[in-house]
C-alpha cells in the first residue's frame, strides 16, 4: 500500500482485527449502519469494514476519512458500519435519544432570576440539543434522495461527467453524492438548476426526478454554510442571554437554511406572492411591517393573532387569554418535535424606529409569552448579501416547498 497523503490514514490491520474482536466481546449494544448513525462530537465510534476496524473521535470523522478507510478495506464508503460504545458518557444523541436533565448551577441562589439567567432557564425548549448534522450525514441524505430516482441520477451523471454503467443504483447515487460534495457549490447549484429545467416537463418519471433535484438543492444549501458560523450560532443559542439571536444570514431565505441546519431538518419554504422576492421559511412567522406602531401594541397583537390562528381552534377562542397562550404554546412545542420551531425574523432597525421607547418591553413581553419561539436578527452586510445572491438567487424558486 502506498504512503497515505495528507488527511488520509494508514491502518494496522492486525491490531485493528484484535481490537475489533475485543470490542465485540464487550457485547456492544449499539450497532448502526452508516446511513442510520448520528455523528456528534460527544461520541467515539468504531468504524468497521470487512473485519477491519478503527476507533475515532466523532469530531474527527470526515467524509474524506471514511472514503479513505473504505478504500483500504475495499468496500463502498457507505457500506461501512459504525458502532457506538454503550454507557452514559458515549450514549447516542440522535433525534430519538433523551437528553440528560441539566443540573442546577452550584452556588445559585433562589428567587427571581436576573435578565441573563432568565433566558438561560426558560428557553430550554427552543434550543437545539443535538449537534447540527455533520457533512457526512448531509451527503448521506443526498445519496438516499438520489437512490429514489434513476432518472435524476442519470441526468446528473451527465452534468458531472460520471459514468458507471455496470454499477447498481445505490453505488451510482453514492458516487454522485460524493461528487456533489466535492465540487464547487456554485457550480453544483447551476447544474441542479439546469437539470430541473430539463426534467420538469418530461415524463412522469422525469417530473418525479425534478422534485428529487429540488430536495437535493436544499441539502446542498445546508452544505454551503460555513461550519464555524454554524458552530458559533449554536453556541450563542445555548447561551441565550437576549431576546434576539443574531443569525449570520442577510436574507430570510438563509435564515431558514441556518434554522434547518441547527434543527437537523430539511429547509422548507413557503410560496411567495412576488416571484422576485426571496422565499421565506415555512416555519417563519410573517409579521407585516405596518403592524408596528408608536403605541407599542401593533406588533405584539399581530404576533399573538398569528399564533392563535395556527394553534387555537375557533371554538377555543372563548377560553381566557392566559389559557389560549398556554394551549398554543403546548401545541407549538409538540409540533417542534416533527417540524422544527417557529421563528420570527425581525427588522430590528425598523422596530426600534417605530416602537421607540417601548421596543424592549414589546419583545421582552413576547418572549415571556412565547418562550419556544425564536426571534432572529439578520446580518445586514453587503458582502454577505452578494454571496447569498450569487449562490441561490437564480434558483430561489427551486428551493423545496414541501413539508
Write the layout of secondary structure elements.
Layout: H1 13-25, E1 32-33, E2 44-49, E3 52-57, H2 63-73, E4 81-83, H3 115-122, H4 135-147, H5 150-159, H6 169-182, H7 185-199, H8 204-224, H9 227-238, E5 244-246, H10 252-262, H11 298-311, H12 321-339, E6 343-346, H13 348-355, H14 359-369, E7 374-377, H15 382-392
Parallel strand pairs: 5-7, 6-7
Antiparallel strand pairs: 1-4, 2-3, 2-4
Helix pairs in contact: 4-6, 4-8, 5-6, 5-7, 5-8, 7-8, 11-12
Can you walk through the features of this model?
With 403 residues, the protein is an alpha/beta fold. The chain has three domains: 13-83, no CATH class; 135-224; 227-398, no CATH class. The protein has 15 helices and seven strands. The strands form two sheets. It has a four-stranded antiparallel beta sheet. Strands 5-7-6 form a three-stranded parallel beta sheet, with helices on one face. Helix 5 (150-159) packs across helix 7. It is globular, with a radius of gyration of 24 Å. The termini are far apart.
